[in-house]
Amino acid sequence: MRIIDLHISDELRIKSKLGEHGSCSYILYSDELCNLLHRRFGRHNLCLKVFKSEATDITSHTWHPRKSQLLLDCTKIQNLFALRGLAPFVYDIALVNDHNWAQVTDYVRGVPPPTSSASYVDVRKEFSITVNWDMNEKNWVDGWLVDFGSFYWKDKGRARYIEDMKERVNKYASWGSNPLPYQSAFGLPSQRDMAHRVEKMKLDDVDFTGKTVLDFGCSLGLFCQDALARGAKRAVGIERRTEAIDIAYEVANWHGWWNLDFLCLKLPRERGRIAEIIGLDKFDVTYALSVDRQIGYDVWMAEMCDDIFYLEGHVPDKEHTYRKRLEEDFSTVEFLGVTRDHGPRPLFRCGK
Q1: Is residue 159 domain-resident?
Q2: What is the mean pLDDT of the chain?
Q3: Would 283 be classed as within a structural domain?
Q4: By the number of CB atoms within 10 A of the CB, which of 41, 65, 111, 186 ranks highest?
Q5: What is the pLDDT of residue 136?
Q6: In the chain, pLDDT over 70 holds for what percent of residues?
Q7: b/e code 196-209 from CB counts within 10 Å (16+ = b)
Q8: Which of 28, 2, 22 is nearest to 150 (CA)?
Q9: Are residues 237 and 331 in the same domain?
Q10: What is the chain's percent helix, strand, coil content, to nearest 5?
Q11: Residue 187 shares a structural domain with residue 242
Q12: Per residue in 160-175, pLDDT tens?
């Protein structure tokens, strides 16, 4: 995960502080603050849930100063409830004015929750979550569960949930006839070598700061996580199966990479839904890695790219397989050689 430093003027803080607060936190929300958060995180209608206790080491900071539930664990648990439509998502944890931790989260007052087939009890059982005390009406806002200070994983529950994630990585993140997951998580063997691909793609040469990123055929979403680690403000991954995007989100959530979206779409037919859901029709950095056989490279991919486009082909493709098409759509086309972790695959970096 990354630590976000966020500085807010006293004037903006006073304007944004609402009467909505509990024993541990209070809400900052205003049009001006929304604009600031939109510029930083690429999302609308965000607020800050600011924790009153002075910030300590984020790995040991608790939701409630007199309780043992870790803020990081509570946030991960909240996002699992959000994944099932019962809570607002948290997109980052920020250090506000060098003094207080805050969740960057959806503002849900007056916003009806999505229809969900899951119940509060269902989600607890699904993800092996324990609650210290019973919920009451103060823990909910307009149908959304917003107070997670009593939620945690017992040691056995944590181990059980990690093992469950590993099983679903192996089950839903494989591709083709190879039974291994396409990308690796939790140190599991996989078909692709992320470190090798990152080196061949020369990603260290690219400044991701404040960029938006789109990954066609994202698998477990490691390139989305990597983009956030490099400073991107928002990353979006596309896959074809609901189970695949669920486990991709859970893996990212577990490791604290939160400002991303995984969409279940059938491309190219449903490509228009990306802009409808995300609110962006162009992305600064776009990946189309070994997806030509599944969705095909076409000009619409180039049109969704605003700056840098990566294309990785398949075995037995060569440089000439793609160069002419890419030169029609981009002003610069750089052949980076071939990746060799899954057979020789031609690799390009293109620019607008």
Answers
A1: no
A2: 96
A3: yes
A4: 41
A5: 80
A6: 100
A7: ebeebbebeebebe
A8: 22
A9: yes
A10: 30, 25, 40
A11: yes
A12: 999 999 999 999 999 8
Q: Give the count of domains, the chain.
A: 2
At 29, phi and psi to the nearest 5? -155, 125
pLDDT in tens, 81-137: 999 999 999 999 999 999 999 999 999 999 999 888 889 999 999 999 999 877 788
- Which CA distances in Å does 214 have to 33, 256, 307, 331? 26, 19, 12, 20
Cα of first residue to Cα of last residue in the chain, in angstroms, is: 31
Q: Does residue 326 share a domain with residue 200? A: yes
Asked if 139 contacts 152 with a C-beta cutoff of 8 angstroms, the reply is no
217 and 107 within one domain: no
**What is this structure's pTM?**
0.95
- Residues 6+ positions from 160 with CB-CB distance below 8 Å: 128
Strands (DSSP E) found in 4-58:
4-6, 17-21, 25-28, 46-51
**Phi, then psi, of 164 in degrees rounded to 5:** -65, -40
Within this chain, do residues 30 and 135 fall inside the same structural domain, yes or no? yes
Same domain, 219 and 324: yes
Q: Is residue 67 part of a domain?
A: yes
Residues 128 and 232 in one domain: no
Structure tokens at 11: 């004037």
If asked whether residues 180 and 137 sit together in one domain, one would say no
Tokens of 220: 């477990």
